[in-house]
Amino acid sequence: SQQGEEDPQALSIQEGENATMNCSYKTSINNLQWYRQNSGRGLVHLILIRSNEREKHSGRLRVTLDTSKKSSSLLITASRAADTASYFCATDVEWGSARQLTFGSGTQLTVLP
Amino acid sequence: DSGVTQTPKHLITATGQRVTLRCSPRSGDLSVYWYQQSLDQGLQFLIQYYNGEERAKGNILERFSAQQFPDLHSELNLSSLELGDSALYFCASSSRLGSYEQYFGPGTRLTVT
Which chain B residue lies closest to A89 (C-alpha atoms)? Predict the structure, then answer.
């Protein structure tokens, strides 16, 4: 079963607008990661935020994490048509050399030119 | 290009058959992960190997098995295939040290007819 639930399931915006995606999860985590997937392709890692961090930036990406609410958000600023893809949050639990990423259901983002 | 390779790209087979999917991790990565992505189940973690040993198990059916060889490549074996096994199967690899992101291969699309 999936740990993360993402909201919204689909989002359509105009180029230049900001896109915000939310993720909620259920159990304790070591960190939370966001991945992007273009249709039918492999996932690409975007950003990782550790459980003791509250906010992280990478280029046009801003991720927040609220461990008390077990939620995270991904903000993409000044969106481009090339940002059209599915975005997944993944909770990361590690123990020794074992680790398990549990992915959310994803948000399908469409950026219209 | 993530550096993770998967073969074959596409596989079409009949119910009841057995197939083997192959994955070569990025150079130097000791961990290999297998995921299944389907429309109804989303992206599900199947199993992790680290330096040849099984480390974590997710929602992997008993009909499925995997192994990691001394050269670190991995194979996922799927047997007694059912229609519901049709999915994209991804392999990912990661380095234990440093960053924790996983690098995904392009996937193998399995169609069971």
Answer: B43
